[in-house]
Design brief:
heterodimer; A: 388 residues; alpha/beta; nine-stranded mixed β-sheet; two-stranded antiparallel ribbon; 11 strands; B: 131 residues; mainly beta; five-stranded antiparallel β-sheet; 1 helix; globular
Chain lengths: 388, 131
């Protein structure tokens, strides 16, 4: 297998609107705010962007999101592509952007996503999102929703491993603590294990605080060619390796409820980066639900199967712990704005490697692991970032 | 009150729905090349890519593989909430998503039963009935 690129792509710019309830926002305005912030953060000008990668929106669906954003914003790159892989999209966009610049097609790729799924849909958001993850013919007629599908996975997890609800509840508690340290997070009020266990049941065993909120927000990255990164303000953070593992769209067709493509995606990313799981300082791992994070962490090879809950209860996943995870609060507390949700994980990872996280800073962080999961744990993409 | 979603048969799935509605049978595809069963129906075998598939009748005997009680689910299911959704493994080697007759509170992984066909608002659907 090919190893690390000799001149890996670099993330040289970041833009984020943060996540919350932004009454006057639109999907496109959130894209624009994040995109132009990222371009400025990189010390670039709009005409330096020669590729845009876009994603998807529930509120303003487009046939070609990247192209629609070009039209909206006045940016004029030659290359514009749209990737729509649910929660794995952000990581796949970074993987694709790195390939574009490493192959010499372009110098600075704008990776951008955003959606006003809270203020744009209100109570309709839940219904719209819920129906997306269920097969129209073989699941939806039986009342399947995205939380129900993840709950089925969680039911199997609790059946197979000796882990208590209290231990798993430590995951949302830890992430809420992290979010309380981030000024741009959507949910910042601290919670404890009792709060999690008392929150209303959505689909057993998942309760309200096991589920991420719907948030308005947008985020963007600039991914630059290694030699082009000298044109940028800060030089950038290297994309050392990426990998994927994909198995299914719908839970009814999942080959396993305990083994997912994250195992493969993480292994490929580590191999390409020539990095071991134990070398990672900080992890930003997709966490649409508590179970999503538990399963993702265990696939990294850093925690044994069934151990994530105990690790969380021990404090391993908190700042100062063995593997600080989702140091911005993750989707569970920083917020979830669709594809931008996954980009928030990348923004945090890069800020950790830049050393600008303040109270959230993981000391001397040199290597970060970022993971995205799409659909019902069916699409996975892992990326390893390293300080240059 | 919105109507619950109903399945729309496709050319691939029509034999399944016809067998359910007109003959009271649970049908599944069996691959003549690799001998594996599959659900949901496809134009080819999802295991080996084979194009020769045969429709067979299932005994319906099944075991619960995963289970959840949905409290906040689809708006059209509000009257039934909390309602059970189960993934069941059917004897011949395929898996289905179903609700559970009677919506028992104590539905659990490992529960044995049968896939039965029941009418709901004029549509015949497979459901799980515990033994």
């Amino acid at each position: 297998m090919a190893g690390r690129m000799s001149a890996p792509a670099r993330i040289t710019g970041l833009g984020s609107t943060g996540a919350g309830d932004f009454e006057t926002s639109t999907a496109m305005s959130l894209h624009a705010e994040a995109a132009f912030a990222a371009i400025a953060d990189a010390g670039l000008l709009p005409h330096d962007i020669d590729a845009i990668l876009g994603a998807y929106s529930l509120v303003e669906p487009q046939a070609m999101m990247a192209t629609a954003f070009m039209e909206y914003s006045g940016l004029k790159p030659a290359i514009a592509m749209t990737i729509s892989n649910a929660g794995a999209t952000a990581a796949m966009m970074v993987m694709q952007a790195a390939m574009l610049v490493e192959q010499g097609y372009c110098r600075h790729v704008l990776v951008v996503a955003g959606d006003n799924r809270l203020s744009g849909l209100r109570s309709g958001a839940g219904a719209a999102i819920a129906a997306l993850g269920a097969h129209k013919q073989w699941e939806l007629p039986w009342g399947m929703t995205v939380p129900a599908a993840y709950a089925l996975v969680a039911s199997r997890y609790l059946h197979e491993y000796d882990v208590s609800p209290e231990q798993l509840a430590a995951i949302p508690v830890t992430q809420r603590r992290h979010a309380s340290l981030h000024p741009l997070a959507h949910k910042r009020t601290p919670i404890n294990v009792q709060d999690v266990l008392a929150s209303r049941m959505i689909a057993s065993p998942l309760r309200l605080l096991d589920c991420c909120p719907n948030s308005d927000g947008g985020a963007a990255l600039i991914v630059s060619a290694a030699d082009a990164s000298k044109d940028t303000r800060a030089g950038g953070v290297a994309v050392l390796g990426a990998g994927q593992g994909n198995t299914h769209e719908y839970i009814v067709a999942a080959p396993s409820l305990t083994q997912f493509g994250c195992k493969q995606s993480a292994a490929q990313a580590f191999a390409r980066a020539s990095v071991a799981p134990g070398d990672i300082y900080v992890a930003e791992i997709y966490d649409s639900f508590t179970i999503t994070l538990a399963v993702g962490l265990e696939s990294m090879g850093l925690f044994e199967k069934g151990e994530a809950g105990q690790a969380a209860a021990r404090g391993d996943l908190g700042l100062g712990g063995r593997l600080p995870c989702n140091t911005h609060g993750g989707l569970l507390s920083f917020g979830h704005s669709g594809a931008a949700g996954g980009l928030f994980h990348f923004v945090e990872a890069v800020e950790q490697l830049r050393g600008v996280c303040g109270e959230r800073q993981v000391k001397d962080a040199e290597l970060a692991f970022v993971h995205g999961d799409g659909g019902i744990l069916g699409a996975h993409c892992s990326v390893i970032l390293g300080r240059c | 009150m919105t109507d619950k979603p109903v399945p729309t048969p496709t050319p691939e799935s029509a034999p399944f729905w016809t067998a359910a509605r007109d003959e009271g049978r649970l049908a599944y595809q069996s691959c003549l090349n690799c001998a594996r069963a599959q659900h949901y129906p496809r134009a080819l075998c999802g295991h080996c890519g084979g194009k020769q598939l045969e429709w067979r009748q299932s005994s319906g005997r099944a075991v619960v593989y995963a289970a959840t009680r949905v409290h906040i689910g689809l708006p059209s299911f509000k009257a039934e909430a909390p309602y059970d959704i189960v993934l069941v493994d059917v004897e011949e080697g395929f898996r289905m998503v179903l609700n559970v007759i009677g919506n028992p509170e104590d539905i659990a992984i490992g529960d044995a039963g049968r896939v039965v066909l029941r009418e709901r608002d004029g549509t015949v659907l497979p459901q799980f009935e515990r033994s």
